[in-house]
Amino acid sequence: MSFIQKQRREQMIKASIETLAVIGYQKLTFKNIAERINVNPSLVSYHFKSKEALLYELLIYILEHKTHYIEEGIKNYHTAPERLKAFIEVSLNYHETHRDENTALIEIIFNMRTDDGKALYMQVDDEPDAIHDLFKGIIKAGIREGVFNENIDVEALNTIVNGSIDERMLLNTGDKDNQAFTEVLLLMVNQYIEPGRR
Where are the transmembrane segments (predicted)? Predict the structure, then answer.
């Protein structure tokens, strides 16, 4: 695939995200994607053989870019406590600044069906989750370095923290509320991971 083809394909993916966020899964067509970027619908179908193929690619694109956003946001922090704080702040900021991606993601997960007719959110996924693995890596590093409590249940903490972060996905409450939520979540986590806690 040439550079121009890759650029055009990414343009279509971004247009699909924007369109999906506005009109929803059921109304999404190659035609309204094409209209958003002023191209012929046949060009969209040339790059994506079906609506389902497009949506799977959107799903991967959104998750990969979210992971990259968080990785970039914490890369300049080196100690486990710094990286944990940055992880939470950057993850919550992602939800504030990427509303179209969040809406599109939810539309896909709750509406798209697998070959056996099940919604994606109902599937048991054994694939590694890069964001969860990143979080758990930070916690395990802190335990090894002795700056986090050695009795931390890493899996439970990961579920609670990332679950809390993802609950903010579609809330449009503004920076002030987001900052308050961040402070409360950090306070709770810091109390739990404090060395010496029994």
Answer: none
Cα separation, 148 vs 18, in Å, equals 41
Which tokens sit at 95?
Answer: 């939800």
Q: Is 11 left (phi over 0), alpha (psi -120 to 50) or beta?
A: alpha
**pTM of the complete model beyond 0.90:** no
For residue 89, the one-letter residue type is E
Per-residue pLDDT of the chain (198 residues; tens, 9 = 90+): 677 888 889 999 999 999 999 999 999 999 999 999 999 999 999 999 999 999 999 999 999 999 999 999 999 999 999 999 999 999 999 998 999 999 999 999 888 877 777 766 666 565 669 999 999 999 999 999 999 999 999 999 999 999 999 988 877 666 668 888 999 999 999 999 998 776
150-171 burial, b at 16+ Cβ within 10 Å, e below that, comes to: eebeeeebbeebbebbeebeee
